[in-house]
Amino acid sequence: MAPPGAMAPAELQSLRSFLRIASIIAMIVAILAIILIAYYALVAAALGAFGFVVFGFGIIYAVIVLVVQILIWLNIREIRAMTDRGQYEAAKSKTLIWMVLGFIFGYIITGIFLLLAYLKFDPVINWQRMQGGGQVAPGPWMPQPQQPMGAMTPPSQSSVPPPQMAPAPGAAPICPKCGQPGTYVAQYNRYYCYTDQQYL
């Protein structure tokens, strides 16, 4: 889990929003499945045995959709709880299976929003690892440190990364814009301000 004072990336809010929308859609699809079951059953009953032959598959599929959507709704609640606890990797793994079932038995739309949530887990997981001092792969949500114009990198520095030094206690520089202390990024051996999104 990230430290209490650490600012979460915007992807975390998007992730929660997509999970919330997927939960609502799962319930809507479940209600539509109930309506379809009732409609098919009434039509099949009116047509007699022939009706049950014609609409039997539709009734069975609608029942499967209903059951799967209820299970998706229940599991999204658990995934959201895991996300709130900072268990992002476990929540991502749990999202995958229900995303696939959402595509198959959710008329695609449930799976789409679970897919959007699934894709947001990677930057959030990287952010969590960075807060814990772990090595993370740079992504589009975290800018690369820029060198001054005209600066040349010696060949030896580009081929051999510099040793990672732990920051001295209480030595975090203060951001000149917002006045908040920077967060140490072990990947680049530099401090980063999340408020102004710049390296110090």
Question: Topology, pairings included?
Answer:
Layout: H1 10-47, H2 49-84, H3 88-105, H4 109-131, H5 155-159, E1 183-185, E2 190-193, E3 198-199
Antiparallel strand pairs: 1-2, 2-3
Helix pairs in contact: 1-2, 1-4, 2-3, 3-4
Describe this protein's structure.
The chain has five helices and three strands. It has helices spanning 10-47, 49-84, 88-105, 109-131, 155-159; strands spanning 183-185, 190-193, 198-199. A three-stranded antiparallel beta sheet has the order 1-2-3, with no helix packed on it. The longest helix has 38 residues, at 10-47. The protein is mainly α and 200 residues long. Helix content is 60%, strand content 4%. It folds into two domains: 10-131; 166-200, no CATH class. The two termini are 24 Å apart.
In short:
With 200 residues, the protein is mostly helical. It contains five helices and three strands; from the N terminus they run H-H-H-H-H-E-E-E.
